[in-house]
Amino acid sequence: MDQCKLIFAGPVGVGKTTAVAALCHGRLLTTEEDASDVTRLHKDTTTVAFDYGVIDLDGGDRLHVYGLPGQKRFDFMWEILAKDSLGLILLLDNSRSSPCADLKFYVDAFRGFIEQTGLVVGVTRTDSHPLPVLDTYRASLAALGFKSCPVFEVDPRMRENVVMMVQALLYQLAPELAG
Amino acid sequence: MRQEAFTSVLDELNGSSADIEASAVISTDGLMMASLLPVGLDEDRVGAMSAAMLSLGGRIAKELSRGDLEQVLVKGEAGYVLMTSAGQDAVLSVIAKPQARLGLILLDVKRAAEAIKNAL
Ligand SMILES: Nc1nc2c(ncn2[C@@H]2O[C@H](COP(=O)(O)OP(=O)(O)O)[C@@H](O)[C@H]2O)c(=O)[nH]1
Ligand SMILES: [Mg+2]
């Protein structure tokens, strides 16, 4: 493995663009455009194609990282970007009305892909919204058939939190690669 | 109303050439603002795809020092898709037949994009 790729998905405003930026030390390609739909309630701009960054892994490998657009109407981009990637880091926002429904929506949308690859879940905004607790997500994941999927509380602005999810995903795929 | 203004621009554009099959005005974040599309097309998807293409087109134009993006052209065996910036916040998408005379269509599209920009 010398070039590999992984993707970040999740609802609007959960912190996908923030996570890719943190991981790549702010050196990223974004496709942010002014939001005109309900996205505006969360933030002023939204990702319409993808966020992209690249980092060098310890072993000399390069990891290409893509943040997907959140809204369903961009699901054709999900398909394009998931192709040939190592796995999915799914971010969920604890401040949304039903984050477990979001979990089910994205797991179902990416099911074929993550069954072949790997899945890690990160829950954001637990600082302001402590509920649901991680065990609730674990139970939902088990019900969806992903019992051993790692789940973390993360703040996507903190690089070490994002690195932790990436390492968990790499470890899941090939324990000898994670270092 | 803004939507009526857009629709009348699209009406005129589609009427200007028999080679133009359909057209739409889309927000830069991918939502349909007005459209004269064939039935059966998924407007949400067409809107999102246009927005993604135009955004990436803008990025590559900048990366390769081509300045602000004006247009993205897609040519398939069965015809053209032309996406044109209409001001800061909108995209004009046009579908044309394979034998279309592109020069003429480009002129009409440019005029329509200007009209949409002014109606925004
Ligand atoms: N307080 C707090 N803010 C967060 C957290 N996660 C994300 N954010 C903020 O939420 C916004 C997320 O925006 P963005 O990354 O564009 O979301 P995207 O739609 O998923 O790409 C940013 O302003 C982040 O700083 C979190 O855990 N705590
Ligand atoms: Mg984003």
UniProtKB/TrEMBL annotation, chain A:
Pfam families according to UniProt: ATP_bind_1
The UniProt record lists the keyword Transferase: no
SUPFAM superfamilies registered for this protein in UniProt: P-loop containing nucleoside triphosphate hydrolases
InterPro entries, per the entry: Gliding_Motility_GTPase (IPR052705), Gpn (IPR004130), P-loop_NTPase (IPR027417)
Alphabetical list of Gene3D superfamilies matching this protein: P-loop containing nucleotide triphosphate hydrolases (3.40.50.300)
Keywords: GTP-binding, Hydrolase, Nucleotide-binding
Entry superkingdom: Bacteria
TM segment ranges: none
PANTHER family documented for this protein: ATP/GTP-BINDING PROTEIN-RELATED, GLIDING MOTILITY PROTEIN MGLA
Family, similarity comment: Belongs to the GPN-loop GTPase family.
Name of this chain's protein: GTP-binding protein
Annotated source species: Chitiniphilus shinanonensis
The organism's taxonomic lineage, starting at the top: Bacteria, Pseudomonadati, Pseudomonadota, Betaproteobacteria, Neisseriales
UniProtKB/TrEMBL annotation, chain B:
InterPro entries named in the record: LAMTOR2-like (IPR037587), Roadblock/LAMTOR2_dom (IPR004942)
Entries under SUPFAM superfamilies matching the protein: Roadblock/LC7 domain
Superkingdom field: Bacteria
Pfam families per record: Robl_LC7
The Roadblock/LAMTOR2 domain, residue ranges: 6-96
Designated name of the protein: Roadblock/LAMTOR2 domain-containing protein
Organism expressing this protein natively: Chitiniphilus shinanonensis
